[in-house]
Design a protein that fits this description.
By secondary structure, the chain is mainly β. The chain has one helix at residues 6-16, and strands spanning 26-32, 35-39, 46-50, 57-61, 66-67, 72-75, 80-84, 91-95, 98-99, 103-106, 113-118, 120-122, 126-129, 137-146, 150-153, 159-168, 172-175, 182-196, 203-217, 224-232, 236-239, 246-254, 258-261, 268-276, 279-283, 290-298, 301-305, 309-311. Helix content is 4%, strand content 55%. The model is unreliable at 1-23 (pLDDT under 50).
């Protein structure tokens, strides 16, 4: 029986009418098989995507953004969504989007925002590619479930990734470029988490994680790393690269090895209740580094080297 979407669409439009206005473009939305392709124009777009029923995707334009010349367009029998947003500063909000397949997004140039106000459920892979230099992009999602991998990648421009209450059955990867980036993960579970922030003054905060393995590399720059309340069922490898970095590592357990290296620069590090079933290794690298050791322990071996100042 055909689902009557008109009452739901009217309600959704009324709820979203108070959202900020950014857009001035018409976007194209076309269905091929089970894939919905959304293509933005050269100006700023603002759209909302939701699923009032299985396989149904509703695309809502905000302010002067239209979808195929209309304010709201609904599609049925959709398993995957592919977006290419073009130029402009775009805003994409998920309002309970549910997909059995993949979600692929290319944000293009401009300062873009991806956010949600209802759970995002994806049965395949999420792949988000941010734009070029000259724009800053923000991805802020909560209550997200991804059956496959979750991948965020960028070439240039500042990137902010903020994920809360996220479950990823595959791997979660953030690969940022050469800018000052911020990555925050709270209450997340995943297979392997891999965070690469590249050159720049970066901030990485990881809190309440349960993972199979963790690898971070913040590259050159004055970086800040905070990891707390974390359980890893495999190895943890933290590499902060060159320059003067700050790291606070608290209440971390690993069933494998734990390795933290800090490279050149005057680094300030604290390790509080860091426990590894294998080897626990802290390497301060070159220059005068300070470590506050409040319970760093490896069942096989504890290695603390190249710290000129060690405090209890």
């Amino acid at each position: 029986m055909r689902r009557n979407l008109d009452p739901w669409i009217a309600t959704a439009a009324a709820l979203l009418i108070s959202a900020p206005a950014f857009a001035s473009d018409d976007i194209s939305a076309t269905k091929t098989g089970g894939t919905l392709a959304i293509v933005g124009g050269p100006f700023s777009d603002a759209i909302y995507l939701t699923s009032p029923g299985p396989g149904v995707v509703v695309v809502i334009g905000r302010d002067r953004t239209t979808v195929n010349g209309q304010p709201v367009v609904a599609f049925g029998a959709i398993s995957s969504v592919r977006m290419g947003l073009g130029g402009g500063s775009d805003v994409i909000r998920f309002a309970g989007l549910r997909l059995a397949g993949d979600l692929t997004m290319d944000l293009g140039p401009g300062s873009d925002v991806i956010t949600d106000f209802a759970p995002l459920l994806v049965g395949g892979t999420v792949w988000i590619t941010t734009g070029e230099a000259g724009g800053s992009d923000r991805i802020a999602l909560a209550d997200t479930f991804v059956e496959g991998d979750f991948i965020v990648t960028t070439d240039e421009g500042p990137l902010e990734v903020d994920l809360t209450n996220v479950e990823v059955r595959g791997s979660l990867t953030v690969n940022a470029g050469t800018a000052d980036d911020t990555v925050t993960l709270r209450e997340a579970t995943a297979g392997t988490i891999n965070i690469q922030t590249g050159v720049g003054n970066d901030t990485v905060t990881l809190s309440g994680l349960a993972v199979d393995a963790l690898e971070t590399a913040t590259g050159e720059g004055i970086d800040s790393l905070r990891v707390e309340l974390m359980d890893a069922f495999g190895p943890i490898d933290l590499d902060m690269g060159a320059d003067d970095d700050v790291a606070a590592l608290t209440d971390i357990t690993s069933t494998g090895d734990f390795a933290a290296s800090f490279g050149d620069g005057v680094d300030t590090v604290s390790g509080t209740r860091v426990q590894a079933a294998g080897v626990a290794s802290f390497d301060g690298g070159a220059d005068v580094d300070t470590l506050t050791d409040s319970g760093i322990s490896g069942d096989v071996e504890t290695q603390i080297i190249n710290f000129e100042v060690i405090l209890p």
